[in-house]
Amino acid sequence: MKHLEPQHVCGQGTERNLPPNSSVEVELQVKDHVATVISTLNYQNKEDKPIEALFVFPLPGDAAVCHFSADIGQTHIVAELKEKQQAREEYDDALSSGQQAFLLEESEQSPDIFSLSVGSLPPGESASIMLQYVIELAVEADGALRFCLPAVLNPRYQPQGPGVPVSSVPASEIPYSLSFSARVSSPRPVSKVESSCSLEPLQYLNTDHTEAAVKLAAGHKFDRDVELLIYYKDAHQPSAVVEAGQDSAKPGTLMGDPVVMVSLYPEFPESVMSKRASCGEFVFLVDRSGSMQCPTNNWNQQETRISSARDTLLLLLKSLPMGCYFNIYGFGSRYDHIFPKSVEYSEKSMEEALKKVEVMQADLGGTEILQPLQHIYSQPCISNQPRQLFVFTDGEVGNTKEVLDLVRKNAGSHRCFSFGIGEGASSALINGLAQEGRGHAQFITGSDRMQAKVMQSLKFALQPVVKDISVTWDLPKGVSATVLSPPITTIFQGQRSLVYAQLSGKVLVRSPSGFTLGINRRPAPEVLRVRDGSYGTNMSEMYFGARQWRDLYTSRAALKSILSGTGSQCRDLTAVPEQPRRDPLLQLVSLQKASGCWLLDAALASVLGKTSEEVEKSKPAEVSSEVWATILALIWLHGFKMDAKDEWELLAVKAASWVQAQNAPCVKECVDAANALLGYKVQKDALGL
């Protein structure tokens, strides 16, 4: 490729003569569970000669690009989709002949890295490039829909072969301004919108609060990811989004027929969810590359990613059920494991693992995740112990596609839960691991606590699964629904499923009659009725039971594409900084035994803020020391750490089960005595006793 000097490289996280004359405008349009992102990059050449500007930027790995255009001076150019080699040749030919052109390319190694070449840009000339893509928003553990606009693109570790050259830029030195606005519309009312950045007050655009708008607050400095969390009321109710076919397209085609997106986000009864699995093989794969020594966020420089991972492993190991199997792997340029193969969970194996976790450091070099995954998959599965893989990484790898291909090949033998740590983690890798492994993805950024999100995923892994899912379409005669998305095989609590279907039949094209979509959630089927208007620009009405919905329109080009298809630079450290005083919660958790009980000793008394004599003196005479200690720990958790319940809930359930198994006398008196000693008023029923 012919390059015109000087060459500029700009974008979210790349650097080479960063141009200061850039601005980015981002418009977010959220319609139920789908978001359309319109991003416009404005740049002016301040050099005294023509340049070729190269911008490297992150894009969600599962996004569908549906529009790309540029205004260079008075020239408007709309991109065409072509084979990569042909597109490169035509771009080079245009530059060689003195024409203006641009080229957008996806990385061959990772689908969330794009490079944009703009040339040749004359001196003093301005360029405005608009990129539009659509993405399904992920559902967080608390039901929020998450959108993230990365401020930085981390350098990607590439084990071998060519890759996109990316060098990190400190977020504080990002040279361009950002304008960001969002508009949210849904069949459900929008209850709130939260962000990691300061926002202007949320503005509702109608009386029933189903449409809302929000902007970044004035003076925003683009020094961190812009993360939006969108909350809907009645989030667990099924809903549908319908889009009319294009008048110019042939009936019977994807673009010519109406399509529907049905959202299923069930909430199961507590009586069902309380029946947790007591078996399984739990494999924890932890990134120990040098980048894991970076701070977890920009506000707490003492808490590093690897230290947060250590604390999380402590909670995980304490929360595992007796009778399961487990192992822990660490990976970097090489990998290691605590046990040669997964071992049965017991007091001995747990303590052996914890001793090694306590000294775990980010000291294994690069980020090569492929080899440890190959080793894990080569291990035979244990009979009646379903394999659950938990992957912790900052996502800085370059061979994403190869990794995901491996997970896909082994999807039938395990589930994969993935965790992206820090800003700039590869969404293609983190989301791809969970998607191919039939698990759940979580991102830990800003002030997020890794422990809460990981423990939520452990609940998913332990909860019962709903199988034999069927979707029944109740349509008028002559109308049919062709499901376009992969079949739903399982549904978990807190996991959203989307069903896309193409609706065929003349009744739907111009007839004002209605049709129904039957959503069978055995044993009580519910019916979603859609009353069709003209399938034009008018808003249709939807009914679910006695509830009225508004019709929403999504991007048809995006649907077609979807179905087909960190803050600062971190260097390796040679010294470990002094650690702050350990969290009392983690101190208490570290004292729990694998069976779920606590021992009555000085260490427990210290965490409770009491002396050994005070604790011993208050113990009812009929109760054993272990039962008394365990009830004290449960009272302390419920009375002092309710704000962190997501982190300790599973180990508390295990502790309560242990107490019940002891058939201890005078449990009510024991609870009263513990409340009196610690100064709380926790009821016995709240403890699960």
In short:
By secondary structure, the chain is an alpha+beta fold. Among the domains are: 22-137 and 152-158 and 172-223, Immunoglobulin-like, CATH 2.60.40; 278-462, 3-Layer(aba) Sandwich (Rossmann fold), CATH 3.40.50.410; 595-687, no CATH class. Helix content is 24%, strand content 27%.
Protein described:
A hairpin with a 6-residue loop joins strand 28 and strand 29. Helix content is 24%, strand content 27%. It is of the alpha+beta class and 689 residues long. The protein contains 16 helices and 31 strands. Among the domains are: 175 residues, Immunoglobulin-like (Sandwich); 185 residues, Rossmann fold (3-Layer(aba) Sandwich); 93 residues, no CATH class. The termini are far apart.
Q: Any descriptors?
A:
689 residues, Immunoglobulin-like, Rossmann fold, seven-stranded mixed β-sheet, 16 helices, 27% strand, globular
Largest sheet: 8 strands, mixed
What structural class is derived from the secondary structure elements? alpha+beta
Q: Which range best describes the helical content: under 10%, 10-25%, 25-40%, 40-55%, 55-70% or over 70%?
A: 10-25%
| CATH level 1 name of the domain at 278-462 | Alpha Beta
Level-2 CATH architecture of the domain at 278-462: 3-Layer(aba) Sandwich
Strand content: 25-35%
Q: Can you tell me the CATH superfamily of the domain at 278-462? A: von Willebrand factor, type A domain
The Cα radius of gyration reads 28 Å
Strand order of the largest sheet: 6-5-9-3-2-12-15-14
Report mean pLDDT, rounded to a whole number.
Answer: 78
Per DSSP, the total helix count is 16
